[in-house]
Amino acid sequence: MSAAQRRSVILGTGSELPNKIITNEDLERLVETSDEWITVRTGIKQRRVLEEGKGNADMAYHAALRALEDADLEAKDLDAIVMGTVTADYPFPSSACVLEDMLGARKAFSFDVNAACSGFLNALAVSDSFIRSGLINNALVVGSDALSRLLNWEDRTTCILFGDAAGAVVLGASENGDKGILSTRLRTDGSHVKTLYVPAGGSRNPTNPETVQNNEHTITMNGKEVFKTAVRSMEEISRQALKDAGVTIDQVSLVIPHQANRRIIEALAERLHVPMEKVMINLDKYGNTSAASVPVALDEARRTGRIKAGDVVLLNAFGAGFAWGAAVGRF
Ligand code: ACO
Question: Which of 30, 32, 219, 227 to mutate to test the pocket of ligand 1 (most atoms within 8 A of CB)?
């Protein structure tokens, strides 16, 4: 590996979790479910919900400030802001633009990427490419979603799974040593669009009184199909990303998977032959936070000392599209 190779390194991380907590017991009062069912099937105990009147960028803003502080960088110095989200503040323009204005990042170009739960990995891969190509020297990479806004709180098959959060990473260019993002891999399979989607509110089925009446603006999902494909796909893409990075799974200190379901993560760890002590899990506290899940878990792992200098970390995610991805980095 050449010492002069230009890479992107993680300079800082931050996250933001809304204050409002909804526990499994709270959900027992809303739908026909139980703490036991939710815990056994998913591992989730509680989730956070963005307060009314606030938007996605409000969460992203606080996560971004923490990441910038951690990176010792100011917003005015940012070259780009790339945000993974499916719950932008407005149909357009992007939440990245809203965030850019809130931060005062006047020099940056900003845009959202829509890859559902894999959104952060897509944003990371794009930003990493910009940096490696020399187009930019740094980027704020955000995963932020408020899926509570897309939930039918009378549908027990979906409303128990999700929560709101934002996570952010500051990437910077480095030509020193072998630290940084070693590989990224992205995939999609568009034949599964309707396995997990929101049927109305887009150009195919615009909002009207009937779509609202029929709850077509909320998440529709075939959970079993998602589960099956998620495990297989994340295993495959993780192996590809490791191979590209030139590291073996034994050299990985920590796996930070998308926090969808404890059983998905356990099945993935088993297939990858990784002991659960080397797998980051915080979904019990936050549920599935979509694009925020990986950067929030990464931030928690760094701040709680689970990642040390020199550690190799594997990130992976899977979500609607289907879209999935993996990345390998050395700290
Ligand atoms: N409480 C109680 N019972 C429930 C609930 C609930 N919240 N939800 C469903 N049930 C019932 C069903 O109606 C069904 O009843 P029946 O046997 O009388 O028909 C029974 O429980 C079993 O339902 P299944 O759907 O078979 O349960 P399963 O074991 O597949 O678990 C789950 C469902 C948790 C959704 C699982 O399929 C899953 O996690 N899938 C992945 C989905 C996911 O993570 N999506 C997020 C987006 S993509 C991603 O992030 C990876």
Answer: 227
φ/ψ (deg, to 5) at 80:
-155, 150
DSSP symbols for 157-174:
TTTTTB-EEEEEEEEEEE
Crossing angle for the helix pair 119-133 and 293-303, nearest 10 degrees? Answer: 70
Q: Is 97 a catalytic residue?
A: no
- The span from the CA of 12 to the CA of 55, in Å, is 24
Distance 41 CA to ligand 1 centre (A): 7
CB atoms near residue 42 (< 10 Å): 21
| pLDDT, tens digit only, all 331 positions of the chain | 444 689 999 999 999 999 999 999 999 999 999 999 999 999 999 999 999 999 999 999 999 999 999 999 999 999 999 999 999 999 999 999 999 999 999 999 999 999 999 999 999 999 999 999 999 999 999 999 999 999 999 999 999 999 999 999 999 999 977 899 999 999 999 999 999 999 999 999 999 999 999 999 999 999 999 999 999 999 999 999 999 999 999 999 999 999 999 999 999 999 999 999 999 999 999 999 999 999 999 999 999 999 999 999 999 999 999 999 999 999 9
